[in-house]
Structure to design on (254 residues):
């Protein structure tokens, strides 16, 4: 039995489609932060997990040949929301989404390197942080980012995928299949590739769920699933994107 994990966000459905139907897989659905913990503890063999994990923990191997969750510009579900009246360069306090890993690391890099801001960091529930205006900015990912951006329209959006690509000229790889030490992803590669092919073909049928979850119209959800998100990149682009992120995080090259 191969222990495999994925995130509970709509963004992951096209490449984790039907994995719960395979008898040889034991599927766990959890936020990125929890998947990272389970991988590092050896409690999962493989997970659709945050790319920053493999940069901070090189023993966790990123499958560069497999499906990914990436963007070549605006992604709309990995955001920093700026308090009304605050510009990015003025951010002195940043609420970090407890569920996030790559998004929170990218937010710190973007604010520091692009906008010259070095805010104090606070791990807070994003909705609470927005309601109480406890911080100058709130970092948030996933379905809640799409929901809360609409509920708090007076907060200015900083789309981290768009900012990264404008800055570096590279796509940003938010997540991909990451294996624990000693696990060979080729054991399940055919299943994962087939899941992605089937899931990508069924994106149109996922749009009504997106409308319900996000509270947005079908055109918004269609663009999100078909244009904003990139699920396949050549391996050399994956490596280049991860390498650029690693450098900007100040981590030792692998």
């Amino acid at each position: 039995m191969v222990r495999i994990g994925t995130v509970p966000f709509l963004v992951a459905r096209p490449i984790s489609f039907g994995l719960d139907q395979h008898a040889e897989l034991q599927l766990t659905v959890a936020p990125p932060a929890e998947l990272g913990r389970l991988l590092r503890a050896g409690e999962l063999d493989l997970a659709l997990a945050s790319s920053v994990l493999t940069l901070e923990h090189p023993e966790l191997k990123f499958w560069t040949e497999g499906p990914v969750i990436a963007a070549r510009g605006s992604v709309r579900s990995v955001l920093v929301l700026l308090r009304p009246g605050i510009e990015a360069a003025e951010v002195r306090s940043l609420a970090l989404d407890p569920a996030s890993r790559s998004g929170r690391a990218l937010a710190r890099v973007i604010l520091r390197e692009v906008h010259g801001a070095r805010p104090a960091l606070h791990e807070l529930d994003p909705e609470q942080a927005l309601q109480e205006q406890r911080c100058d900015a709130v970092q948030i990912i996933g379905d809640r980012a799409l929901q809360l951006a609409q509920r708090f329209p007076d907060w200015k959006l900083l789309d981290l995928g768009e900012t990264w690509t404008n800055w570096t000229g590279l796509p940003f790889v938010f997540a991909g299949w990451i294996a624990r030490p000693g696990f060979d992803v080729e054991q399940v590669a055919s299943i994962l590739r087939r899941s992605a092919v089937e899931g990508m073909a069924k994106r149109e049928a996922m749009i009504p769920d997106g409308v319900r979850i996000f509270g947005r119209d079908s055109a918004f959800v269609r663009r999100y699933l078909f244009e904003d998100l990139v699920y396949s990149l050549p391996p050399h682009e994956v490596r280049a994107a991860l390498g650029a992120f690693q450098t900007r995080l100040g981590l030792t090259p692998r």
